Amino acid sequence: MVVLERELRKAPVLLAPASTPDAIPLPLRRHGGSSRQVLALSLVGTLVLAIFASRDLSSWLDRLGDGPVMGPLQHAAAAWDGAMDRLGLTGMHDLLRRDIERLLDWEWGAPP
Description:
There is one protein chain. The chain is mostly helical. The protein has 6 helices and no strands. The radius of gyration is 28 Å and the shape is elongated.
């Protein structure tokens, strides 16, 4: 019994890695980005959405209704969408929208 207790004392104690409530391990949390990097990525993401989702921006603003602020925003979004359409950057959005509508209209028993 004494020998067994000595071996147990010599055995390494395995502890669970420390983590935070959102389950990100502490070593990974300590190596995050700076506030400038977060700002830069936010601006890049906003620009990408503005370019490739101009159709959704325009339709979203149209659904919000009218008002003194909404009118100019809706016109600006429509002009932006027109510019993106002239540049040919809305083609993939239109293709994806058309394919999704076709899938939603498709009945399982009927051929495509």
